[in-house]
Amino acid sequence: MAEQLIIQGxxxxxxxxxxxxxxxxxxxxxxxxxxxxxxxxxxxHETFGFWWTGFYRVVGEELVLGPFQGxxxxxxxxxxxGVCGTAWQQEETQVVPDVDKFPGHIACSSLSKSExxxxxxQGEDIIAVLDIDSAELNTFDHTDRHFLEEIVSML
Length: 155
Ligand code: SME
Hints:
Blueprint: H1 12-28, H2 33-48, E1 52-59, E2 62-69, E3 76-78, H3 82-90, E4 94-96, E5 114-122, E6 125-134, H4 142-153
Antiparallel strand pairs: 1-2, 1-6, 2-3, 4-5, 5-6
The structure holds methionine sulfoxide.
């Protein structure tokens, strides 16, 4: 496994394309889900400089904070609550250009301005969500959705 992550690329798409094989290389030899979530969060966070990058795991009727990079965050989120709980309930990626306009958004940090939440599937079940927050508005679009869905499918 490479010890240093070097991702170059002019565009977001190029950087995701460079990152994808490196994530694959890092997680394919490791069977522990938490360890892999930790490295995926770190690699995404380092590459793009997001405000907060991490996972919430489905534990019973709640999402519970998992591996992440960034400031401390809320530990438990109920199904259907906030952007994360909505992604879990609807089993669908949520792209939020302005978190203040998302009904029920949970503000773990007032500095978070836009957000994407991608469900992590295992067979028929949602077992976690990947949550990424940006300190700027309108950070996430179909490119992020496409590549992040591909990345979580490798977990
Ligand atoms: N904003 C999220 C809560 C998690 S924090 O952003 C890390 C939400 O509305 O679900």
